Amino acid sequence: MSSAFTVSSCVTVVVVSDGPVFITAFAEWSLKGCLLVWSTRLLVVTRLPLPELQHLHKTFSMTNSMLLVVDDTISRRFTSFFF
Q1: pLDDT tens-digit profile of 10-21?
Q2: Which terms are listed as keywords in the entry (predicted)?
Q3: Residue 8: predicted pLDDT
Q4: DSSP single-letter state for residue 55
Q5: Which of 22, 30, 61, 80 is most buried by a 10 A CB count?
Q6: Is residue 5 part of a domain?
Q7: Calpha distance 64→42 (Å, rounded)
Q8: Between these two residues, 45 and 6, which has the higher pLDDT value?
C-alpha cells in the first residue's frame, strides 16, 4: 500500500475584509493554528484606517504577511502597502 502526498511550498492566502473583528480573529486563529508559517504568505486587503489595525502589527510581523489598505475617500484611489 502506498500513499501520495501533495506538498505545496508556495501558498498565498488572501483575506479581503472591512471587518476589524474578523481580521483580528483570523490573524489570531491563523497564528495559533500554524496556518501562517514562513512558507505561507498572507495578503490582507481592507479599507479600514491604519490606526484601527495597529494592534495587529505584532501578529503580522511574526509571519510572512502584507497589509494592503485601500482608501476610496479621496478623488483618486490611494493604496498603501505595509510589510
Answers
A1: 788 899 999 999
A2: Receptor
A3: 56
A4: G
A5: 30
A6: no
A7: 6
A8: 45
Q: What is the DSSP string of 10-23?
A: -EEEEEE---HHHH
Domain span including residue 52: 11-82
Whole-angstrom Cα distance, residue 37 to residue 2? 28
Q: Cβ contacts of residue 79 below 8 Å, gap of 6+? A: 68, 69, 70, 71
Q: What is the mean pLDDT of residues 72-76?
A: 63
Cell of 30: 491563523
What percentage of the chain's residues is helix, strand, coil (to nearest 5)? 30, 30, 40
Residue 3 identity: S
Query: How far is residue 26's CA from residue 53's CA, in Å, rounded to a whole number?
Result: 13
